[in-house]
Amino acid sequence: MTPSGLEAKDLRPFKVEVPEAVLGDLRARLTNARFPDAFPGTGWEFGTDDAVLRLARERWLGGFDWSAQEAALNAHLHVLADFDGATLHAMHARSTVPRSLALVLLHGWPSTVSEFRHVIAPLVDPAAHGGSDDDAFDVIAVSLPGFGFGGPTRTPGWDAQRMAEAIAVVVRELGVERYGVFGTDAGAYVASALASIHEDAVAGMHLHIGGVRIAGQARADPSAMSDLTDVERKALDDLADYERRDSGYALINGTKPHTIGYALTDSPLGQAAWIIEKFRTWSDRSGDLAGTHFGAITLDDILTIVTTYWVTGTASSAARFYAETGASLARSGLPVARVPTGCAAFPGDIVTPSRRWAERAYPNIVHWTDMPRGGHFSALEVPQLLVDDLRAFFRPLR
Fold first, then answer.
1. CA-to-CA separations, 365 to 65, 125, 186, 341, 393, in angstroms, rounded
2. Rounded to 5 degrees, what are φ and ψ at 208?
3. What is the CATH number of the domain that holds 251?
4. Dihedral sign, CA of 55, 311, 284, 137?
5. What is the mean pLDDT of the chain?
6. pLDDT digits (tens, 9 = 90+) for 90-120
């Protein structure tokens, strides 16, 4: 496969600086927010827990420090690149170790590059974090077009394939000729497209392997339903539970993203409810949201992601990924990446697939790790486990 000829019109430096007027408007909307009625004691039964959302609003208004989040993000180089219909944002954290392997990190929904905030330092400077300089990476954390700091996409057609083509252009513009790629959730689709387009440049692909699509495909194929393992039986049960109780967001994003986009773009409380519920449902919780922690994920981590969506106005364009990528997958399927592939499966994820099923979608899996803990947001929940697995997978591919 070859790139579509996308060209970056203007690669330029960028700094995360949200105008005070935008933050003031956010505070005013939160202060005057209207809460819906909630039945006492229902908790999460009908969606986001009212008590949790009230706690989150209090933290957002009176303790969460967005300026500190900006400073942490701005510790790294940021660039923007304009394409027809979108602006791509990337955060480039360079290692001081000579000949480090470049590693492109691709997040999913409902997330942003901030999901990688706890893995960047140990990837870039492993010796300072219990590792060896031999495992150092130059990290390029990309905001998927339409998600976060690049702003909304402006024309139709920004599916996983086109995103991958734009990312390949920006990586090349940054002077990188050979690199690895990691993807999770939506980012896994983009990673597969990137690796299939640029097999000569991608040293290997590591995935936080999600099981919804893989288990769904296996369930539809009688040959995959024989001699089921315990992992596969649980995956089918989890998939059925997901479809029955948790898939509404995907149906909305995939069919009417603009309808939900109006609500999320107009109400920060609604944006928070939409995202916090997913962090609660999809994380491997060691307890429920209490104080400023949500299992292993802090509330400030979540609020950084929610604030990014709010100040960039990208709720609608991020949701459109489901509609546009879903349409392209229906037409031609996911591009097959034949580069060396590593997979990490997390027991607290939505659905945890088996290696046997995953190999039907990814034909060159050379590394597989069944993690002892962690859920859908591994870079926030179990950053050290993810870092260790990335190091191990890419070590022979350098």
1. 42, 27, 19, 5, 11
2. -75, 100
3. 3.40.50.1820
4. negative
5. 94
6. 999 999 999 999 999 999 999 999 999 999 9
d(CA 279, CA 270) in angstroms, rounded, equals 15
Q: Quick check: is 96 in a domain?
A: yes
Q: Would 242 be classed as within a structural domain?
A: yes
25-79 tens-digit pLDDT: 999 999 999 999 988 888 889 999 999 999 999 999 999 999 999 999 999 999 9
Q: Give the pair of three-digit tokens for residue 94.
A: 């360079």
Please give the residue range of the domain that contains residue 53. Answer: 11-28+45-397
Q: What percent of the chain has pLDDT over 90?
A: 89
- The DSSP code for 306 is H
Element (H, E) at 90: strand 86-93
Mean pLDDT of 167-179: 96
Which amino acid is residue 161, in one-letter code? Q
Alpha helices (H) in 313-373, listed in sequence order = 315-332, 355-361
- Answer whether residue 308 is part of any domain: yes
Confidence band for 332, pLDDT divided at 50, 70 and 90: confident
**β partners of residue 181:** 104, 205
Report the phi/psi class of residue 333: left, alpha or beta, with left for phi > 0 and alpha for psi in -120 to 50. Answer: left
Both tokens of 47, joined, read 């969606």
For residue 195, what pLDDT is reported?
97
Instruction: Specify whether the CB–CB gap between 3 and 168 falls below 8 A.
Output: yes
**Residue 101 lies inside a defined structural domain of this protein:** yes
Is the pLDDT score of 396 beyond 90? yes
CA distance 335 to 58: 44
Q: State the angle between helix axes of 248-255 and 257-266 in degrees (0 to 180), rounded to the nearest 10.
A: 100
Per the structure, how many domains does the chain have? 1
Cβ count near 164 (within 10 Å): 29
Q: Cβ(271)–Cβ(309) under 8 Å? A: yes
